[in-house]
Specification:
Number of strands of chain A: 10
Helix content of chain A: 10-25%
Shape of chain A: globular
Strand order of the largest sheet of chain A: 2-3-4-7-6-5
CATH superfamily of chain A: Electron Transport, Fmn-binding Protein, Chain A
Largest interface: A-B, 98 and 98 residues
Oligomer: homodimer
Largest sheet of chain A: 6 strands, antiparallel, barrel
Low-confidence stretches of chain A: 1-6
Structural class of chain A: alpha+beta
CATH topology of chain A: Pnp Oxidase, Chain A
CATH class of chain A: Mainly Beta
Mean pLDDT of chain A: 91
Number of domains of chain A: 1
Chain lengths: 227, 227
Amino acid sequence: MQGTQPPTSPPGAYTPTDRTVPTRSADRAAYDKELVHEILDEGYVCHLGYVRDGAPVVLPTLYGRVGERLYLHGSTGSRPLRMTGVADPGLAVCVSVTHVDGLVLARSAFHHSVNYRSVVVHGVARQVTDPEEKRTALDALVDHVVPGRSRDARPANAKELAATAVIRLDLDEVSAKVRTGGVNDEPEDLPLPHWAGVVPVHTVYGTPLAESDLAPGVALPDYLTVL
Amino acid sequence: MQGTQPPTSPPGAYTPTDRTVPTRSADRAAYDKELVHEILDEGYVCHLGYVRDGAPVVLPTLYGRVGERLYLHGSTGSRPLRMTGVADPGLAVCVSVTHVDGLVLARSAFHHSVNYRSVVVHGVARQVTDPEEKRTALDALVDHVVPGRSRDARPANAKELAATAVIRLDLDEVSAKVRTGGVNDEPEDLPLPHWAGVVPVHTVYGTPLAESDLAPGVALPDYLTVL
């Protein structure tokens, strides 16, 4: 960041803010919306942070994305969900999604790292009260885990809808951070007798394990064979 | 939690507190130290939460464990590390580690879930200033990513040590949360024509990609072939 001008963002990018410009490795930060969406859409578990009694709380939870909005859900009795009640002004949150793509082993301990792609979203989460938006959000949450699944499951009934709280978080103050490539060793370390390189890390799906009491004739759906 | 007695913990377990007893799915919570260590040791990226200007911040970062202590590190210039400076009383943090083991597809949208194992640690992080402890911590951080690696890399020199801040967080207020097993559908949903079951999720390592400029005769080390 140079000079004192407020940061500007190209079309299709989030505007950097004081909170989304990292204090280090600023060259790894990105604000491109397509990249952010791609990272978000590849995951389904985020880490949700909020403040309770002045102290931070970080919990893993599922999420879905619809356009420029994230949806998170939980029991209406759960703490963060209660804290976003309609009557209050919302809950300040930070949501983080991270994918590890590789272990970076340098000749020096100092330059060890991981290749990763992460997204951090800052904002105020609010409860979704509109029934239509709530249904859209719940479908998005299911489809985020397995694309196409929401059309092949019984939708929530009135009792289940009432027991589920959904919160939304607009994608506004957002950054991605990405490390790719190989090892960054110091030139004088290159002759050292240590192996150096990258170990790729992948998430893979095993063979689906069907429940033993499926209704007669129910086969493995196509959307599971392409996972 | 029953009655007004303070919670007691069996040997080998963390004492539950108000912050570590979940408001929902309390049956999934566990305080067993061995289980907590196992979950922590299987990962190397945690999500670190802290409060800045009253708002939560959640960032992915590497960690290592030595006994009942977690170590995190970063540039001395990074925000959370600066906030744990020696002069101040430490930084209230929450550290979360999560492994996803399976996608749980129920016949009803409502009962969709994931199988997972997670650990949440609350506490106050403090900078490590003792040089010996700092070296131990940095070795632990490297060995957490690849066991055995710290003995096969050039240790940090004085300049690198000075540029690296290490913080410690005692494992004291800790809980694990685990979901395993199959689908929990409502009995009346069992005849529905939807596939139900669990899709296992695994993290796997690809073939290590060596740097092109390894010193002559440097081979792939054994500790990488067993990943």
